[in-house]
Design goal:
Low-confidence stretches: 1-14
Structural class: alpha+beta
Radius of gyration: 29 Å
Shape: globular
Mean pLDDT: 80
Length: 586
């Protein structure tokens, strides 16, 4: 038993310090919330609490729970509110909260570990007192070693846990023993957690008016990401890929990292960092909105380089019908595919050793036969109509075709050798490959490809047929396939890509596919029942419980999400994407 009298040395006025001013410049990952109370209020307005409680009632978290009873989650929140505030009113912190992960070097043993630091600006909230009491009780009950240390004149708890992993037991030279130490404090109006003292020292320096010079906020990469995302948001998070790669290489003693990273960069592109900003329930109609950013300071390459820069949006084609669940339009530079393949081979030592120039030339010729006939306009569509079944749900990819005759000839020469079966449809030839392979699958695994109307179509056979039918009979096709309400709220006149969808229908389609899979599972259980009825009964009970949970999740999510839309802009050094989702229309 011990008594702490100096742990809480809270100042009356907390300095306005953000997590990006505290984390080091080599931070790997970060996340922050601008105002905790406002965020929770917005999330509640979204209906998240009602959705969670609905799921809890559906699956029966409480054995004696009836539909009219209070949700156990809500009851727990009420009890917590009473313990935190007067008259049952919960005092939620109204300040900033943040978290970060960064590398920590132990120069004595020559290893690299991971450090974590988290901060919550408490304000007038009593959560800090409650956390302190809970932490004290936990430490006493677990009989862990606790000592008070001084960092910048503040009293900090240092908790030692029995946690030790031999470094030679890990595939890479990373020191995880730093996780055996936890630093904890409530001081200067903040609730603080960390695994090493430097994060605390950086925060206290900022509070005392001497912020560290090489912080995450001072990083040019971080600044570029935030400029793309717009810094004003409810929450933001990011991953600094350059720091992640550097840390991985320092941890790796096998040398595999030196080979893997160039391969990954040649495939996906040299990504410096990724960030997102999100606003929850920003107005009465919008459920959630946000922006994403990818920064590539050395230029867009790899798969990221295939996406064209901003271009005027083309019209929605006639084959995008009323059964569309989601639709996206992108501009892809297929002329860059062959240089990309060559670069991937050159950066993969195993492939480079196995392939001579003649083999590479053959690959280039094989790819060129297809892509030389394609334009850049690309459409991706998912379709479905109620009742959702494997026959009513499908997908379609349509790519602009600039030379239909040549591509038709190429498909006629190559597709039969791949096991495709040709068929005629409205004067067009469709090549279909059946991937079922005789398997008892409740869903259609066929893949069809055809050329017609200035496009190459690929997808389920019925979606390809519907597209060809719409082109052959334009008067019968949907003459006005209007945007959904979300798409009309986003600027998508000059972009690299954009799209929209109905998340509710998409979830319902997935639920229908899962239900058909459950039918196949029942057939298997009937076979098991013939030789072991007891085992079959246990398996059926487990399956029914899983099905109830999945059904509750799917139904609640389908009722929670509304129409959504997105747009993307590419430039020489990365991407900026914007999305929003509306509240469902009740």
């Amino acid at each position: 038993m011990f008594t702490i009298t100096t742990l809480i040395a809270s100042s009356i006025f907390a300095a306005d310090v953000r997590i990006d001013q505290v984390l080091p410049e080599n931070t790997i990952a970060f996340a922050s919330v601008a105002n905790i109370a406002e965020l929770l209020s917005n999330v509640e307005q979204m209906g998240v609490t009602d959705m969670v409680c609905d799921i809890a009632q559906t699956i029966g978290l409480s054995e004696n729970m009836s539909p009219g009873d209070t949700c156990p989650i809500t009851a727990t929140c009420v009890d917590l509110s009473k313990s935190l505030g007067e008259d049952g009113e919960c005092s939620i912190p109204t300040g900033h909260a943040g978290w970060g992960l960064y590398p920590v070097v132990d120069y004595e043993v020559g290893s690299v570990g991971l450090g974590m630091f988290a901060m919550v600006e408490l304000g007038e909230s009593k959560i800090g007192d409650t956390m302190l009491e809970a932490f004290t009780q936990h430490s006493n009950s677990m009989d862990v070693e606790v000592e008070i240390i001084d960092i910048s004149g503040r009293s900090i708890w240092l908790v030692q846990n029995e946690f030790e992993i031999p470094m030679d037991a890990l595939p890479i030279n990373v020191d995880l023993n730093s996780l055996s130490q936890l630093y904890f404090a409530i001081t200067d109006g903040y609730l603080l957690f960390g695994t090493e003292p430097e994060g605390f020292a950086s925060l206290f320096s900022a509070i005392d008016g001497n912020p560290i010079e090489s912080s995450l906020a001072s990083s040019d990469l971080y600044t570029s990401l935030m400029q793309r995302c717009e810094n004003d948001s409810d929450a933001k998070a990011g991953l600094i890929m350059t720091n992640l790669a550097d840390t991985f290489l320092q941890m790796d003693t096998s040398g595999m990292g030196m080979m893997i990273l160039p391969m990954a960069k040649s495939l996906f592109g040299d990504i410096d960092g990724i960030a997102e900003t999100i606003n929850f329930s920003p107005d009465d109609d919008v459920l959630i909105s946000g922006k994403y950013a990818i920064q590539m300071g050395d230029g867009r390459d790899g798969l990221m380089g295939l996406i064209s820069t901003e271009a005027p949006v083309g019209p929605i084609p006639s084959f995008v019908g009323e059964d569309t669940i989601s639709y996206s339009q992108n501009t892809i530079e297929f002329s860059k595919v062959i240089p990309l393949v060559k670069e991937i081979i050159a950066n993969n030592p195993m492939l480079a050793m196995q392939m001579n120039p003649q083999m590479i030339q053959q690959i280039e010729s094989g790819i060129s036969m297809y892509i030389s006939t394609l334009g850049s306009e690309t459409h991706v569509i998912s379709t479905g109509s109620e009742p959702f079944t494997s026959d009513s749900v499908g997908y379609l990819v349509a790519v602009e075709c600039t030379d239909e005759n040549t591509l038709s000839t190429v498909l006629g020469m190559t597709m039969p050798s791949m096991g495709a079966t040709p068929s005629d449809f409205l004067g067009n030839q469709i090549f279909t490959v059946d991937f079922d392979g005789g398997m008892m699958m409740p869903m259609n695994l066929s893949f069809s490809i055809a050329v017609g109307g200035g496009y190459m179509f690929a997808g389920n056979q019925h979606t390809v047929e519907n597209a060809l039918r719409a082109i052959a009979n334009p008067k019968d096709a949907s003459s006005e396939h209007g945007l959904n309400a979300a798409a009309s709220m986003l600027n998508h006149e000059v972009v690299s890509g954009w799209g929209y969808g109905n998340m509710s229908d998409s979830i319902k389609a997935q639920a229908a596919a899962m239900k058909e899979m459950q039918g196949m599972n029942e057939q298997m259980l009937l076979q098991v029942e013939e030789f072991d009825p007891e085992m079959a009964a246990e398996m059926r009970a487990d399956a029914e419980q899983d099905q109830a949970l999945q059904s509750a999740l799917m139904n609640s999510m389908a009722n929670f999400f509304g129409p959504m839309a997105w747009s993307m802009n590419a430039d020489d050094t990365g991407f900026t994407a914007e999305f929003l989702m509306l509240k469902p229309v009740m």
